[in-house]
Fold these 2 entries.
Entry 1:
Amino acid sequence: MTENCRAMWTDLGLDLEGHTALLDVLGKAYQDIYLSQKNRPEAMDYFDFVMSEIHGLRIMELLDEKKAGRKIIGSYCVFVPEEIVLAANATLVGLCSGADFATEEVEKLLPRNTCALIKSSFGFKLGKVCPYLESADMVVGENTCDGKKKAYESLSHLVKNLYVMDLPQVKSEQAKALLKTEYDRFKAAAEHLTGVTITAESLKQAIRTVNAKRTAIHRLSSLRKADPAPISGLDALLANQVFFYDNPARFTTSVNKICDELEKRIADKKGVFPEKAPRILVSGCPQAVPNWKLPFIVETSGAVIVGEESCVGERGTRNLTDESGETIKEMMDAIVDRYFQVDCAIFTPNPDRLDHIQEMVTACKADGVIHYGLQFCQPYLMESIPVEKALEEKNIPCLRIETDYSMEDVGQLKTRVEAFIEQLR
Ligand code: BJ8
């Protein structure tokens, strides 16, 4: 840790002791989980570097952007449109985290039986350990699940620049009109924050930039269809996680570089796991950095994860925004069309998600599905039962797990995952 970083974190108001403890745990987990993998693509070096500097160089870059007049907007959900943020001359960063922190303090503000994702957002704020949150000029909360929307009421007392976006919960024309109204309101708020008026040119460029990011991820996903799998699920998940932090153009180049390497590996029939290793699709709640618990268990038990039906994965990146619009109105409509297809479990009914899971099983050539539900996440836990039923009807094995960010259940999970993998063999 350089002196420059320490000074930067102090200026941001971080608690240095707590932050150092967090980085130590993160560094150790990364070493044990990621760097211990064999036969990784060389291009993953870039992602190793990003992770080693995730609270260092990347934060310096963001602060440099701020000095140059750009604004930083933080978000907790894939419904916050990066296209609008970029077009308003701001940078979007993801704020969800995948580790428990300051739990005792958190439970003074939130019920114990709140999902780990929400609790960790509070923990990172209360413990003053997130430089992204502290750099953000605006933090966007969204009315999605009940847990999040009520939590933002409390978060508004801790984060002075919180902006709450309303979101529909059904897929009707009125609901789409609500999304449109909310995206127009967000566009105005982003313009107000940055002092920059979005133009047709800036919006078009922003749509292209975000589409390029998503297209690179699509390319990566389709290469994971190969057997033997050319990349581990852990590494692919990491790319999907870094999607929320990195400079968009650099991210796109880096993912494409991995893909170039994977194409060669596939041609040489080179994989990270032996041919015919059981292939698993993970479906359910988002897995934010450093929540690598499930893929680590799966991939140290002899199976490979070949896709993530998740917001840190396919659900977040599946659709592109139509680039053909010429006016701001046409492009804003295209953005609404694109995001309205996101099949988060907060929607009712939500049949598209069932279809998408089955489509992904076929596309990824998965042998089975693990439904990943965070404890106390009603939307995804509720949907896990119809998901399992629909898969069983098609003779696709499914394992439903419910867990949190702690390591207490690792042994028990490993036993269940190993038994499931045996069944797939
Ligand atoms: S679009 S999945 S990113 S809301 S795990 S907080 S649902 S209780 S994260 Fe999400 Fe947007 Fe939907 Fe995607 Fe609530 Fe469940 Fe917790 Fe969750």
Note: The first strand starts at residue 71 and ends at 75.
Entry 2:
Amino acid sequence: MNKVILNPKRDYSVAHHHPWVFSGAIRSVEGAPGIGDLVSVEDCRGQRLGWGCYSPVSQIRVRMLAFGDCAAPDAAYVSGLISASVGRRANFWVEGRTNGFRLVHGESDGLPGVVVDYYDGWCVVQLSSAGAERWKDVIVQALMTAVPGCRGVYNRSDVDGRAREGLPVEGTTGLLAGEEPPEFIEIHEDAIRYLVDVRKGHKTGFYLDQREARAVVGSFANGADVLNCFCYTGGFGLAARAAGALSVTQLDISEPALALARRNAELDHLCGTACDYVAADVFKQLRLYRDQGRKFDMIVLDPPKFADTKGQLMRATRGYKDINLLAMKLLNPNGILATFSCSGAMSTELFDTVCREAAFDAKRDFQILTRTRQAVDHPVSLAFPEGLYLKGLVLRAVS
Ligand code: SAH
């Protein structure tokens, strides 16, 4: 049996069900575990703390699959984790308000490195750790069985994190089971419909994590001229328009994303002449609007992840401050800024500080109207605070 023995005083976090064992916490490894192999994780007195999957080249050397002095996880155990996670989303099918939601949210659902999103019958999986890859076939079979009316399982494991795990990134997309999905899967959130490209879209195709924030943005959008920065396929802009925004400018650097935003607006009969699509760099376009004296009643800033690691945080902080400062200056009196950070390395406190400093430099005062976070189908395990990655602030300019 392969064993990982932890250093004294470094067993606290695993004992408290934190799912990551860093290389520095390990005293010794017994046996010769290969990539993704199961290891028994024990404290220095030989007491088993649980079982995890071994990642020989990663800083996160073991990701836990089971806690306590239990039997080694097998296929039935992993299938059980999948069906439990799917079962926790049962209300999404019952309520029927949307047919696009996350079924498995990695560590916080007890399945490190496993993400599964559901789009109208299809499951799209993203396996980013050695252990996740090892259990791939079991996961796929479990989804085909556990997901009501599952039509197919599609792989989108083309994620950068795999290289850090020593896993191949090539050849990680394509059908794994069931039927091929159509070119675009149509999903809806309440009355708004979106087309999702699960083959080439970002992540698994759509930003499901912003579902609740889209509704919040809509609740402040009535009668507003809205600028939706980093719009991707238009989500916030469509939610704003459906809620009564007068006009929406969809801004993104990606032409294919804007093309899909336009198709979504047509599908929903939402925009017509009230929508404008601008293919440009947000950093440049906001400066151009400033120079033109252009103003908006509402601005959404939902940039891509500027920081992957703590090391990139300084540069990321400058990027966030820059766009927030520019956007704050473009707001009409009483205007609303909905601003987000999806960098896990940036804490809620640091994001507040960045926005506070941006407001100071913009010489304007703001109120926090509300905060948002990743939607409920992207839960955060209490034992794993790192699971909170998406933070939002909805601010009103009061001067
Ligand atoms: N708000 C979107 C998700 C944003 S994802 C939603 O709710 O669906 C980030 C988007 O930023 C991507 O579409 C990407 O093309 C775009 N992007 C990245 N860098 C950019 C830049 N410098 N200027 C404009 N758009 C950029």
Note: The CA atoms of residues 66 and 249 lie 48 Å apart.
